[in-house]
């Protein structure tokens, strides 16, 4: 039985050489994520005097060591640092910024299930991440009420089976790739038994923070299903990418798994045309297609990331002028109550 399993994996092994050469497994890299602010201050001295424990209390700091290693330790304005740094400015209330900006509680028929758009449902498979992004629209999400568990997953499958208009399931979170391969494989297998489903989409920031997550077992789970698998990474700045990430994405693409990226317009992070153009180029060089560029969702604590609309328009126009169409992500905005994303650009 074990032999058969490894025989089945054999064709994939040459394509995932580099991630397997990593010294750490993804579980070890995950365990070594930094969560203590005193350690952050040691690793990134420039961050020390900007850290706010009050902001930390609303949404705790967390980042992988790979991500932290890309930050200039002497630059408090480093775009990668700003994405993860709990700052006092988060505590200042701002009109129109609230705890549930997309009103997801209205579309939450079962624990762990969000059904907002008619043909797609989203399962919050896991309530944790390898990195805590300060602008995350789910930073206040009630994950404790949305852990489906084994029984909950059965109820979710029944719900999907009863809603024939659903043809795609999005595994999200938290980060669904923090689920182990056995759970992922079992979920994908159960979904593939629902005849009207066509696709499974995985939204993850793990590939760009812990690319070791691309294991033979993961590729096996994503390819040994009748469902078409799509992986959507999340990357906002070209410096987040590296050779290991490119190798991991290449392994996915070589196995016919589509890899797309979504990013968010963020002040201080990617608010220059040069950065956004370089991001698209770097993504493509890493075997990832730019898919969405989101306007910031107005979640409480993130107002300092907002870019004025006119500036976003100018940036987007410059992207269109300098990039081929296939490297210009769709600029979108979520409007609560709308049955689809609003295309801005
Ligand atoms: S769900 Fe995604 S955006 Fe939100 S904190 Fe986790 S990794 Fe970041």
Give a short summary of the structure.
With 345 residues, the protein is of the alpha/beta class. The chain is built from 13 helices and 9 strands. The chain has a 9-stranded mixed beta sheet with strand order 1-2-3-4-5-6-7-8-9.
Structure, explained:
- With 345 residues, this protein is α/β, with parallel strands linked by helices.
- It contains 13 helices and 9 strands.
- The protein has a single domain, classed as Aldolase class I (TIM Barrel, Alpha-Beta Barrel), CATH 3.20.20.
- The protein has helices at residues 2-9, 17-21, 26-31, 37-43, 53-58, 65-69, 79-82, 149-162, 181-192, 216-223, 243-254, 273-285, 309-322, and strands spanning 113-114, 120-124, 168-172, 199-203, 228-234, 258-264, 289-294, 330-333, 342-343.
- The radius of gyration is 20 Å and the shape is globular.
- The model is unreliable at 1-20 (pLDDT under 50).
- The structure holds iron/sulfur cluster.
- Iron/sulfur cluster (SF4) binds at residues 129, 131-133, 136, 138, 173-175, 205, 234.
- Iron/sulfur cluster binds at residues 129, 131-133, 136, 138, 173-175, 205, 234.
């Amino acid at each position: 039985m074990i032999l058969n399993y490894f025989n089945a994996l054999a064709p994939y092994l040459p394509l995932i050489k580099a991630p397997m050469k990593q010294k750490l497994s993804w579980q070890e890299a995950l365990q070594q994520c930094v969560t203590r602010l005193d350690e952050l201050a040691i690793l990134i001295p420039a961050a020390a005097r900007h850290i706010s424990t009050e902001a930390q209390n609303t949404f705790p700091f967390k980042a992988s060591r790979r991500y932290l290693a890309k930050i200039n330790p002497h630059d408090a304005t480093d775009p990668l640092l700003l994405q993860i740094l709990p700052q006092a400015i988060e505590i200042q209330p701002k009109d129109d910024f609230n705890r549930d900006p997309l009103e997801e509680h209205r579309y939450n028929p079962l624990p762990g299930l969000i059904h907002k758009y008619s043909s797609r449902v989203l399962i919050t498979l896991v309530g944790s991440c390898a990195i805590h992004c300060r602008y995350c629209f789910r930073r206040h999400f009630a994950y404790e009420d949305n852990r489906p568990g084994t029984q909950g997953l059965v109820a979710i499958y029944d719900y999907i089976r009863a809603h024939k208009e659903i043809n795609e399931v999005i595994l999200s979170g938290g980060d669904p790739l923090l689920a182990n391969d056995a759970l992922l494989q079992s979920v994908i297998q159960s979904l593939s038994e629902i005849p009207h489903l066509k696709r499974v989409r995985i939204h993850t920031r793990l590939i760009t923070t812990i690319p070791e997550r691309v294991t033979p077992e993961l590729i096996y789970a994503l390819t040994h299903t009748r469902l078409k698998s799509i992986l959507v990474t999340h990357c906002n700045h070209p410096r987040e990418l590296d050779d290991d990430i490119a190798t991991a994405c290449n392994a996915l693409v070589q196995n016919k798994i589509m890899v797309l990226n979504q990013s968010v317009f963020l002040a201080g992070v990617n608010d220059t045309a040069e950065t956004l153009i370089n991001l698209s180029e770097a993504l493509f060089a890493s075997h990832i297609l730019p898919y969405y560029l989101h306007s910031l969702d107005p979640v409480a604590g993130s107002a300092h990331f907002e870019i004025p609309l006119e500036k976003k328009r100018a940036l987007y126009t410059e992207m269109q002028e300098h990039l081929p169409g296939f490297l210009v992500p769709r600029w979108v905005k979520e409007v609560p109550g709308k049955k689809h994303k609003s295309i801005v650009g």
